[in-house]
Known about the structure:
It is built from three helices and three strands. By secondary structure, it is α+β, with helices and mostly antiparallel strands. α2 (about 45-55) links the parallel β1 (about 35-40) and β2.
Amino acid sequence: MKKLLVIVAVVVAFYWVREGEIPGTGPPSYAATDKTVTLYATDWCGYCAKTRRLLAKHDVPYVERDVEKSERGRREHAQLGGGGVPVLLVD
């Protein structure tokens, strides 16, 4: 179930990048949120870089876990089902 939610979040995020906004609303703003956003990524991944830019563009605070350099990141990524990067987990 968590893996499905992560996949949906990533698809929605890339839709926002392509469209520039959510249909029927203004540009999204997430600066004041109580949710924790965790990005599981690597430093060489192009899609991870795009995800970082998307989060920065919308002022979304996030915690990044490098799945190659961080044991904690590798372990948490594996518990989520792993498979690839980026994985965006919204708590």
